[in-house]
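Pinned message: reference record for Glycosyltransferase
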Amino acid sequence: MLSVLIETHNDEEGLARTLATLIGGAVEGVVREVVVCDNGSTDHTHRVAEHAGCHYVGSGGIAAGIRQAKGDWLLFLEPGARLVEGWIDAVVAHTARQTMAARFSRARGSRTPFLARVFSANRALADGLVISKRQAAPLSKKAGTAEALARGLATKKLDAEIWVAPPRQAQRSPR
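Predicted structure (tokens):
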């Protein structure tokens, strides 16, 4: 079974979009739980997580979320990322036969043009991350964030797609 971890900061809208794509996994019995690791949000992120039945971790960061996770495998997603239909079978197949971490392929409409990829900062969690809890736990002690945990890991590509979350600046609207 899989525990999904989502690190947030004022991401109520993105969180809701991501949670919607996980419903099929919960119905199929693949997603055991969703742990929302919040970094001091001042919006309604807590309410979105609570209404969706997520475990909400308000302090301790991603390391606390990993400690609370009950699944043997963890799926890290950015708020706003959306998994494409078929992800469940790909993740189940991967976790049944692999020990190494994996990432999703970007959906065709979500792929960044070549020059934009060359000249922009690469987000390590943009393609999601499926990793065993056994591998993630020691990494989380040194990495303060999910992004830092995912950076530099050797991974396989899953035979499933993800719509990448928009960059952080584009997610927030002025209030």
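Pinned by admin. Summary line: The beta strands are 2-8, 31-38, 55-57, 73-77, 82-83, 101-106, 129-132, 155-163.
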